[in-house]
Amino acid sequence: MSERPLLEIVDVHKRFGAVEVLNGISLTVERGEVVAVLGPSGSGKSTLLRCINHLETIDGGRIVFDGRLVGYREVDGRLRPESDRRTARVRREIGMVFQRFNLFPHLTALGNVTEAPVHVLGLSRAEARERGSGLLARVGLGERLDAYPSELSGGQQQRVAIARALAMQPKLMLFDEATSALDPELVGEVLAVMRDLAADGMTMLVVTHELEFARDAARRIAFIDDGVIVEEAPPAEFFSAPRTERARAFLGRLHQR
Amino acid sequence: MLLAGALDWGVIGDNLFSDLVLGGVRLTLALTVLSMTIGGALGTVFGIMRGSRIAALRAASVGYIWLFRGTPLLVQIVFWFFALPQLWPGWAPWNGQLSPFQAGLVALSVNEGAYMTEIMRAGLLSVDPGQVEAAKSLGMTGPLTMRRIVLPQAMRVVIPPIGNEFIAMLKNSSLVSVISVSELFLVAKLQYSSTLRYLEWLLIVSIWYLALTTVASLAQAWLEQRFSRGRRPQGRSLGARVTGALERLGRDTGR
Fold this sequence. Notes:
heterodimer; A: alpha/beta; 9 helices; globular; B: MetI-like fold
């Protein structure tokens, strides 16, 4: 059972109106693997991530996480929408970090991190506080437990957001351009936390524009353009000898900057 | 003209805290607090329905607002007391009629609910959709997300208009005097009708209404401050200023 990949994305299609955003994407993520998803803006990277934990519906194909469909159940070979409650159950095990942090502004850093463990997992407040303060210490914010998000820098907020996701002890972490909204000098502290997580064996799917991070921390690069995976390769191979014209063009544009 | 020109302060002094007047104040307060609570609950439910994916729920919410915001409160009060038994005889187990207080409370609550629906809708819309996505991504169900994440943030936005509504309700509750609920205004009315001391009795009720609305405004400022937690560390809101002033006052007298 645990031989099966943690995440299997098979021929997923997604349309927004007439625009085909995902055009038959297939991707597999093994347990403990870090996969970086690269691609030009508007290529469908973020949409793919949002489909995985069913923040977006899909129009075709299937996404199987740890042997279960996310947001759907299969009836006579067809996918039907799953109930809110059961979808939420699967989502517990998939952490997500957003570009714009999306911390809960009415809760302190510790409140953000303990909210779901208490109200979703049913942990006691004491247990949740212990787990939460441990995680905040791990992301370097052990001294800021009682700070509200508005009192924290962008980098600190994003680290709280990572701790918040980790507090659910997810099997998979999704990073949706986690550093894109940060001032350049704050990017490093967030990437450091992500590297630490990767080194710790967390399974991660990372949509990013940080090529250095992708090269050093990822085991595999998935390059997306126009809603399909154009190229999939280990970072060393992808960056030194991209096989496809589109990947070469993408890397060339970035190097010119 | 027995009373011409003479404002008799004695009448005010004798009656401002009389049992009769205090009884009226109590009823006015009870009507206001209860109808605002029930109206707030109705407004929350219909406000959530207004944003539902299910068309029938949205329609029910729109229809509710249309009906109860579109007809005079006075008409609704008379309806619940006099017309409901005619429309539906024997509907209630007790004599088929609501007591004046019950009818007044229902009328005020249901009417208030229509306004509160719009206020709650605005409050819910003010919350960043990213908040819901973050909650979902943590495995929170829809109802839990609403209760723990969306509503607390909507509160910040809805408290000022709700404070307005509360103050309006303190005064509008006097309308139920037409179905003989002896709240503050009816007490005064009965008195000035028999003594012809209009000025004195109107002053008595006005003093009370002003006192009640003043307390309500202070409570609103305090609540605003409380629900703006994490939003304005420097606290420039009226609530923050009032709380700050009260704290300073406390410190000064404490010394």
